[in-house]
Amino acid sequence: MISTLNKINTAFEIFRANKGFASKFNFAKCILYNLTPSKYRPQSLNFFPISSTIYVNTICNYRCSFCFLINDDHKGSKKFNLTLDRFNELIEHDFLRYSGRITLGGGEPFLNKYIFDFIKILKSNNKVISIYTNGSLLDRLYDSYMDNQVNYLNISHYDDKFASLRHIFKRINFDKKRTSITRLSKIVTNENFYELEEVFDEATASGFDRIILQNYFPYKKDEKDLVIYKDNKDFINTLNSLKKKHKKIKVIEPNLLSRRNKKFSCNNLSLNSTIDSEGNLSPCCFLTPPSPLNGNIFDENSNPWNSFQFLKFREKLGENSSPKSCEFCYFKHGIENRVF
Ligand code: SF4
To answer: Ligand 1 centre from 328 Cα, in Å?
Structure first.
């Protein structure tokens, strides 16, 4: 029930961010498509994404083992630092113009020197803005951030770094000028969920509005046991007891993976686009980095969201098997407990 309300709220928020008939019509087509049972969804889309994630860089001051974008297989590069001109070209492009919600990601987005210009431009375009950050630079950039706040400030929780950054988060969360909704984002695995009590205590004591729990996406084959499945009663009991104890903080629960052979119904392939500073696309934020092979919005000869790669993914919609790279993804049966 709560997850349905969350989804409706999010949809309504994005709908309101769409100005003009064409934009609202695009939104309606997108929602209708995603509400259609997956076996009846065409592979080719006749609308644009209503939500987009833009990687403003691929560099970071941290090195996290679970990072999808920067790792041993693909190192980050300064060449993907998004410039102001390119940012304007991106958000004015037909492909992105109907995205009511823009998520700024990276790398560490606050390492991009134009980050506050990006926020200003998005605000003047009435977008719902979300940002994912490790939070380490917010102390130094405090005043600039408070003058240019986003709708959703998502701080990733890193076990070994939270204590040294706690004072920054408290400063923001307890500042009367704060307008952002702040969310502490934690990746939960089959191994670390026993330590969630500490995360809930930290989030409450540091004044966060919400906790977002994200299930683990196994980037490597030998990590597949880290995903949390729907039949994990220990996890469900742990979460329920934490929610009971911490009633004041809103919890966005993780999508759990089903062991049942359900139909492939990924919504990310038809709601949200993931794009880098060159205009290259990814199927989603897990299957990165973006690549021209998936489509590039500046390539005039291509239909990027209906590229060969995207059609290959959507070919599996409604089937009992999923594309190989989606095998252990907790979104493969659709968005359930998460707001989109
Ligand atoms: S099922 Fe998961 S990995 Fe596959 S496209 Fe969807 S979000 Fe990405």
So the answer is: 9
